[in-house]
Amino acid sequence: MSTTTHHDVVIVGGGNAGLSLAGRLHRDGARDVVVVEPEDVHHYRPMLSYVAGGQASLTQLRRPQDEVTPDGVGRVRGRVVRVDADRRLVHLESGGTLHYNDLALCPGSSVDWDAVPGSADAVATGHAATSYLPDSAVRTWEMLAGLTAGRAVFVMDDRHVPCAPVALKPLFLALAHWRATGVREAIDVELLVAGPRLVDLARADSVLHDAAIAQGVRVRYGVVVSGVEAAGRTLTLRDADPTGTASTTNHAPVPYDALYLAPPHRAPDWIATSGLAVEPDGSDGGGPDAGFLLVDPGTLQHPDHPRIWGLGDVAALDALPSGARCASRSRWWRRTSPRAVGARPTSPTTATRSPRWSPGRATSCSPSSTGRARSSRPCPSWTWSAPVR
Ligand SMILES: Cc1cc2nc3c(=O)[nH]c(=O)nc-3n(C[C@H](O)[C@H](O)[C@H](O)COP(=O)(O)OP(=O)(O)OC[C@H]3O[C@@H](n4cnc5c(N)ncnc54)[C@H](O)[C@@H]3O)c2cc1C
Fold it and tell me: pTM for the whole thing?
C-alpha cells in the first residue's frame, strides 16, 4: 500500500548539492529535512579525476550514503519519478509519496552519449575513456599509462559538463608519467577545447595554457567533437557554436590512439518532462539548457513555483556546473528560503527583493599543471574530503 509522509523540506538527491544544503539547513535549525537518495554508496566525484590520473582508487572515494548524510537529517531510500508541483507531492518509484513545504531538486545530470554519436562505442574499445563514470575513470588511467607511442587526444566539452576543466588533471598527470617512463617523445598530444579558454579565472588560465604549451601539447580552442568513428579511431570536429545559429565549419578528422572525453551531460528525463524544465524551443531560452530545471538565477527558485528550488548540476544556470558552486549556492538558498526569513512563505515578490546569488569565483580541487596531484579540501560543506596520496 502506498503511503504519504509530510516533511518541511524534501531534498531530492544526496550528492554534493543535496548534502551541502541539508547540512546547512540543519545547522540553521531546520528540524524536518529529508534527503531522497536511491544509492547506498556515495561517490566523492572530484576524486574521479585522480583515479583517471592514476593517483587514487575507487575505494578511496566511496562512502556509505548513510555515513555522509548529515546527522539530524532524514534519509529516504528511494528514487523520485515525478513531481506534482500543484499538490506539493513527490512521487517515488516504490509508489510512496512525500508531501513538502519546500522542495529542493538536486538530482544532478548524467553523461549523454547520444550527443556525440559513436562515443559510447569508442569507450567500449579501450581506446577511449572518461573520468565522468567511475569504471571508465579506472580505464582512463589504464589507457593513458599503457600508451607508449602514437597520438593522445584530450577533449574538454562545455555542454553542461560538470567542472569541465577536470580533463586537465589526467592530461598533466599522463604527461608526467610519459616523461618518467621515457616515452614522451613518441606521443603526440592534442587538447581540444570547446570554449575560448581552459578555465574561467584569467590568471589560472594563462598559467595552465603556458604549462600545456611548454610540455609540447597542441591546444585548439573553439571546437567540439561531433562524432567518433570507433573502429577507425577517428573523431570529427566542428566549430563550437553556443547559440546553435551560426554556420559551422567542419575540420579535418582527427585520428587517435588514446582519447579522453568529457562528454556532454543531460538532465534526468523526469525533470525534462516535469513541466518545470527549460523547454526545447520555449521563450525561456531552450538551446543547450533544454531539459534542465528552470530557476531564477538570482534566487534559485522556480519562477512559477516559488517553493521549488534547484541546486547543482540539474539547474539551468549561466555558469559552469561544479561542486564548489553547489556549496556556494546552498549558502545562498539558506538566505533566500523561508527558513531564513522566519518561516514566512516566500512569494515571487519577496524573492525578487531577496539577495541574489551570483556565480563569482568558486573552486575546489584546483587544477594541477604538474605531475603532482594535490587535492585541496574540496567543498567546505561537502561532508568529507578524501585524502590523495
Ligand atoms: C570527474 C569529475 C571531477 C570533478 N571535479 C570537480 C572539482 O574539482 N571541483 C568542483 O567544484 N567540482 C567538480 N566536479 C563536479 C561536481 O562533482 C558536481 O558539480 C557535483 O557533484 C554536482 O552535485 P549535484 O548534487 O548537483 O549532483 P551529483 O553529485 O551528481 O548528485 C546527484 C545525486 O542525486 C541522486 N539522484 C539522481 N536521480 C535521482 C532521483 N530520481 N531520485 C533521487 N535521487 C536521485 C544521485 O544518485 C546522486 O547521488 C567534478 C565532477 C566529476 C564527474
Answer: 0.86
CB of 13 within 6 A of ligand 1: the answer is: yes
- For 30, what's the count of Cα atoms within 13 Å in the CB-facing half-sphere? 27
> pLDDT category, 287, cuts 50, 70, 90?
confident
Query: Does ligand 1 have an atom closer than 6 angstroms to the CB of 165?
Result: no
CB of 80 shorter than 6 A to ligand 1: yes
Shortest-distance Cα residue to atom 10 of ligand 1: 323
pLDDT digit string, tens, across residues 309-346: 999 999 998 666 666 656 665 655 555 554 543 333 33
CA quadruple 62, 32, 105, 358: dihedral sign: negative
In short, whether 382's Cβ falls inside 6 Å of ligand 1 is: no
CATH top-level class for 112-263?
alpha beta
Domains 4-109+267-353 and 112-263 agree in fold? yes
Q: Is residue 264 within 6 Å of ligand 1 at its C-beta?
A: no
For 4-109+267-353, which CATH class?
Answer: alpha beta
Could you tell me the end-to-end alpha-carbon distance of the chain, in angstroms, rounded to an integer? 49
C-alpha cell at 252: 579535418
Q: State in Å: Cα 213 to ligand 1 middle.
A: 31
- Least trusted range by pLDDT, from 119-133, 163-177, 283-297: 283-297
Question: How do the domains of the chain map onto residue ranges?
Answer: 4-109+267-353, 112-263
| Backbone dihedral region for residue 312 (phi beyond 0: left; psi -120 to 50: alpha; all else: beta) | left
Ligand 1 pocket test target in 11, 12, 16, 169 with most atoms within 8 Å of CB: 16
